[in-house]
Amino acid sequence: MLPGRGRNGHAARLSRILGTRTAWTAAGDGEFFCPGCGGDRNYQRLTGQRRFTLLGLPVLPRGETGPVVECAACRRHFGTDVLDHPTTTRFSAMLRDAVHTVALAVLAAGGAGARTALEAAVLAVRAAGFDDCTEEQLAALVEALEADTGRIAGEPCGAGLAIELHEALDPLTPHLAAVGRESILLQGARIALADGPYTTAERDVLATVGAALTICSDDVTRLLAAARTPS
């Protein structure tokens, strides 16, 4: 059989005559974490109109396609669910706020009056990104938190404080691996242990933190016990 003959040759010739083309229209833009580039990039949200082509020229509409997200750097297209993932900058801010909120919650459980607990909290919060955090600032924020939630130091975790924790942790949790979620809980545990054994109120707060981080109760118990063992 001569080259170009048969089914493959016929299909190749047909594809040069008839085909489809998508005309993209920008419908929005912003910044996202590009899975292709592996970093924060600008994007355009595109909607598409497909058309049949004859000899490379569009002739008949074939329907809409998309929307898709196009990276401004690599030009690759992704589904719009890629926008559900936070940018690196946003993720860092969410993690910083989560650690800060957990530290305040643990201190509000009774450790705000102990310098060792405040020192441990400051170290954790600074490591998370609040470089200028001080013991005085945390103590003042604990007082404000107690006034806002109507909670008295040493009481179990009430509804107001639980809401504060869930608001800080719920958006972050789906984007953290198990080791990352456990790390946040352990930081809270070390703050609680800085001034002595866990109190009932501290355990209650840490259990709420674990639940918000979707850590099962058995693993919360294991981690709280592990935090008591010197490394």
UniProtKB/TrEMBL annotation:
SUPFAM superfamilies per record: TerB-like
Residues in Co-chaperone DjlA N-terminal domain copies: 124-222
Sequence intervals crossing the membrane: none
Protein name, as recorded: TerB family tellurite resistance protein
